[in-house]
């Protein structure tokens, strides 16, 4: 499946819910507690499986399950099994905050889960509580430990770095020294409630890490489905990754689309516009009609985001990252 700029689209991120059990300062602050408010009615498992079958027909082979917090949804293992066995997806992975991962991991892996990304911005208990709003660091670390004990499960740590906590990043990176996992630093994207906040760039973080651990060596091979750029450090078992959407825009290689919890097909994270696939299904659209809607949406996929620009683009996303399944 190609867009108008000849990019191959083979990867879909699917939000299972816009609810979350944390209130991270860059995603879901306390004034928008999504566990205490009525969440959007999510697509059913049957609707997700139907759409993924159509995505597969169009060339999509990789699925990332996101949220909100996807493990707040019931029967996630059943959905993973369907995506693997019914939709024939080559890779099904999940991004989670890790709070419920330990309890659910065995069932997820048995269902066919290929990898897990765990969001963690600090190993300091006080800082974790300040960033997320809750003292759940111990549960997250237990989830990471459990995931590391699963053979062949691809484990990645996702960190959104902030300057007030930059010393925490050195300690967090050390997880990849002592374990065969990847620690990825993701530049803050100014979307929804994160607009106006200041994160850290790849170069700032790389400078901190090289001062502590020595020279970083670019890893030439591709790891995973996304745009992360990886580095090796001497003595490290795992890799350090950077997702640098702001300082090193990678839109020319974008291979993804997103399906929100309420059924909007989004082709770029920055823009609010989407194609309402839920409405189409509720109006009894045929598979052929849905394939046409998806193909047309992908064909019109935007060339690039405008995060770097002083000019304000039209139709920018106003929802939080938790609500759009970033």
TrEMBL record:
Enzyme Commission (EC) number: 4.1.99.22
Keywords: 4Fe-4S, GTP-binding, Iron, Iron-sulfur, Lyase, Metal-binding, Molybdenum cofactor biosynthesis, Nucleotide-binding, S-adenosyl-L-methionine
A GO molecular-function annotation: 4 iron, 4 sulfur cluster binding
Organism from which the protein derives: Roseburia porci
Named cofactor requirement(s): [4Fe-4S] cluster
Record-annotated Radical SAM core domain positions: 4-227
Organism superkingdom: Bacteria
Protein name: GTP 3',8-cyclase
Gene Ontology BP annotations: Mo-molybdopterin cofactor biosynthetic process
Keyword Transport appears in the UniProt entry: no
Catalytic reactions of this protein: GTP + AH2 + S-adenosyl-L-methionine = (8S)-3',8-cyclo-7,8-dihydroguanosine 5'-triphosphate + 5'-deoxyadenosine + L-methionine + A + H(+)
């Amino acid at each position: 499946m190609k867009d108008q700029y000849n990019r191959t689209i083979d990867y879909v991120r699917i939000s299972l819910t816009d609810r979350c059990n944390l209130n991270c300062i860059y995603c879901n602050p306390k004034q928008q507690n999504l566990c205490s408010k009525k969440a959007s009615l999510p697509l059913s498992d049957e609707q997700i499986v139907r759409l993924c079958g159509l995505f597969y027909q169009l060339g999509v082979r990789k699925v990332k399950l996101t949220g909100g917090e996807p493990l707040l949804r019931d029967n996630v293992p059943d959905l993973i099994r369907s995506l693997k066995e019914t939709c024939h997806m080559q890779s099904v992975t999940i991004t989670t905050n890790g709070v419920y991962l330990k309890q659910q991991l065995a069932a997820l892996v048995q269902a066919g889960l290929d990898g897990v990304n765990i969001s963690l911005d600090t190993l300091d208990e006080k800082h974790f509580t300040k960033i997320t709003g809750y003292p759940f660091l111990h549960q997250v670390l237990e989830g990471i430990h459990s995931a590391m004990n699963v053979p062949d499960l691809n484990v990645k740590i996702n960190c959104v770095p902030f300057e007030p906590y930059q010393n925490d990043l050195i300690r967090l990176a050390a997880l990849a020294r002592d374990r065969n996992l990847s620690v990825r630093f993701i530049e803050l994207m100014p979307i929804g409630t994160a607009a106006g906040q200041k994160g850290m760039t790849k170069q700032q973080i790389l400078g901190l890490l090289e001062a502590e651990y020595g020279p970083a060596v670019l890893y030439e091979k591709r790891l995973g489905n996304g745009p992360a750029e990886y580095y090796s450090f001497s003595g490290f078992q795992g890799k350090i990754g950077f997702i640098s959407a702001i300082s090193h825009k990678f839109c020319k290689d974008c291979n993804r689309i997103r399906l929100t919890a309420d059924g909007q097909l989004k082709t770029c994270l920055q823009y609010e516009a989407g194609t309402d696939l839920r409405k189409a299904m509720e109006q009894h659209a045929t598979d052929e009609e849905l394939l046409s809607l998806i193909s047309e949406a992908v064909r019109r996929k935007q060339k690039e985001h405008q995060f770097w620009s002083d000019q304000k683009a039209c139709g920018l996303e106003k929802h939080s990252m938790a609500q759009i399944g970033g």
